[in-house]
Write a structure and sequence with these properties.
- This protein has 471 residues and is mainly α.
- The chain has a single domain, classed as Ribonucleotide Reductase, subunit A (Orthogonal Bundle).
- Helices cover 46% and strands 7% of the residues.
- It contains eleven helices and seven strands.
- It has a three-stranded antiparallel sheet with strand order 2-1-7. Strands 3-4 form a two-stranded antiparallel ribbon. It has a two-stranded antiparallel sheet with strand order 5-6.
- The longest helix has 39 residues.
- The chain is globular and about 65 Å long.
- The structure holds benzoyl coenzyme A (BYC) and fe (iii) ion (2 copies).
- The site of one fe (iii) ion has 5 residues, from helix 5 and helix 6.
- Benzoyl coenzyme A (BYC) binds next to helix 2, helix 5 and helix 8.
Length: 471
């Protein structure tokens, strides 16, 4: 299914046949471009960047590489091919044909899910907008911009659904996507982690490792949706998400690689004099990013989540591979709770526990990469192990929001927290030091002092390729 690039808005949804929808989206497009110019990557308008652009949504067709200026990137609307005779896979409508239009009784829930998802996409672009000024290499600069343009396209994906299926209030929600801003005190982004700063590249790699992985799990759950246009949109977005997590995982790995090499070479744990990032600093950044991402999954027990499931709007991760009735009739699930100062677990109706279940899926997936990080450390015969903090650590949403806990999961009082959080979360000194390393490296093939080169270039190009051209 090829994408029509002759249209003002490239698409594979026959937009040309729906003049009203086309006009509505054409009205939104200038606002989007203005937003990109004002709050997208700073001073990037003139750069030629080696980007991939989707030309078809088939398995191989979505990766077409060439140098592009970002404002000219063809943001468009691409849905994965429809699956013939697809049926709703879970909830009370299990076995019924999927919906091609919004079921009236579920309109507000569906809109809310789409708005929440859509809001994160431009938020991440805003959060990352200054990073281009301090890139550790041209290779990394190109990857940053690739992630940014695709997050921009993910916003287009959600805005299309709002315009195509929700009429006037959908259009209003689409406008609001460009009016809320990451960290804005008056109009913040909806989910808290999307209001944090991402001002240095260690944070960027942690972001793409953890936060984009939340994206993977949320999109996978929405890809199960009985609302077929949402499912098809999310399926295509997931193909792009894989690269974002690749950027995160390889970025962290390359920093670890470099730090370990510096530790061996100089026979020291203190990398501050040799321009490297110490492993304990990385652990503190990891603790921060992992814990704020756990919050993104919502409360352990959620009637919203139960409704989404029963209504057939949002499934579980890989719903069809789960061996049960997909209705959760009478099923129970264990969720954590805090009682009398202790962490306990409660069995609740599984249908209300799907946020917790997805959070656990995310944690397992996150741990797999951490194991790979530890392998790098072990290969250098260095005695250090990265660990994900306990789910109770540094939480703002859910059962643990009211308490303080150490990364090991011991509940502690306020005084202990105040005394010790600097051991566990990035300190001002950590941030200042990491920031002091953020000086741009733009000579093809060269890397900043604190990061190892990647194993290979992008799309078969050499490492010293001019991934970004300056004018
Ligand atoms: N921050 O019933 P609960 C991505 C609110 S990332 C602030 O547990 P629910 C990307 C909640 O709204 C993927 N508020 O909530 C990654 C509710 O408010 P009300 C994004 C929060 O609905 C990188 C109340 O607390 N996609 O794509 O079950 C770069 C009660 O909570 C938060 C999605 O999230 C929070 N963290 O669960 C670019 C998928 N958590 O009703 C992009 C769509 C909860 O009391 N969203 N609240 O006013 C959802 O499925 C659900 O909205 C959530 C929340 C899982 C997020
Ligand atoms: Fe995204
Ligand atoms: Fe992403």
């Amino acid at each position: 299914m090829n994408i029509d690039y002759n249209e003002t808005i490239p698409n594979n949804v026959d937009l040309a046949d729906d003049r009203r929808l086309l006009r509505a989206l054409e009205r939104w497009q200038p606002a989007y471009l203005k937003w990109w110019e004002e709050l997208g990557p700073v001073e990037s308008g003139n750069l030629d960047i080696y980007l991939r652009t989707a030309i078809s949504v088939e398995r191989d067709g979505w990766a077409n590489y060439g140098h592009v200026r970002m404002p000219e990137y063809r943001w468009g609307i691409f849905l994965a091919p429809p699956e013939a005779n697809r049926e709703i896979g879970f909830g009370m409508h299990k076995g019924e044909p999927v919906w091609q239009s919004v079921p009236g009784e579920y309109r507000s829930e569906l809109r809310r899910l789409i708005v929440t998802q859509g809001d994160t996409e431009p938020a991440s672009v805003e959060q990352q907008r200054h990073l281009g000024k301090t890139c550790p290499s041209l290779y990394d600069l190109r990857n940053l911009f690739q992630v940014n343009v695709e997050e921009g396209r993910h916003l287009w994906a959600m805005v299309y659904l709002l315009h195509a299926h929700f009429g006037r209030d959908g259009r209003e929600e689409a406008d609001l996507m460009l009016l809320r801003h990451a960290g804005d005190p008056d109009r913040p982004r909806i989910l808290e982690a999307f209001n944090e700063k991402t001002d240095d590249w260690l944070s960027f790699f942690m972001f793409t490792y953890f936060q984009d992985r939340d994206g993977k799990f949320q999109l996978a759950s929405l890809a199960e949706s009985g609302f077929d246009p949402l499912s098809r949109t999310c399926r295509f977005m997931l193909t792009e998400e894989a690269h974002h997590m690749f950027v995160g995982e390889t970025g962290i790995s390359r920093i670890i690689e470099r730090s370990c090499a510096l530790m061996r070479e100089h026979d020291t744990d203190d990398l501050s004099s040799v321009g490297g990032i110490g492993l304990p600093i990385m652990q503190r950044f990891m603790n921060f990013h992992f814990s704020i991402c756990l919050d993104l999954f919502g409360q352990e027990k959620s009637t919203n989540a139960a409704n989404y499931f029963t209504m057939g709007l949002k499934g579980r991760f890989q719903e069809s591979r789960i061996d049960d009735d997909h209705k959760l009739d009478g099923a129970l699930y264990s969720v954590p709770a805090v009682e009398n100062g202790r962490i306990v677990s409660h069995e609740i109706a599984a249908i209300t526990a799907s946020n917790e279940r997805l959070r656990e899926d995310f944690t397992l997936d996150s741990q797999r990469g951490v194991n790979r990080f530890n392998k790098i450390v072990a290969e250098h015969r260095i005695d250090f192990e990265f660990t994900l903090p306990h789910a109770a650590f540094n939480r703002g949403i859910g059962a643990f929001a009211a308490i303080n806990a150490s990364p090991a999961g011991e509940i502690i009082d306020d005084a202990q927290w105040n005394r010790r959080h600097g051991e566990w979360l990035p300190t001002d000194a950590d941030k200042e030091y990491v920031n002091s390393l953020m000086t741009p490296v733009i000579e093809p093939g060269r890397m900043a002092s604190w990061i190892a080169p990647p194993r290979r270039g992008i799309h078969g190009q050499p490492l010293d390729y001019d991934y970004v051209r300056f004018h």
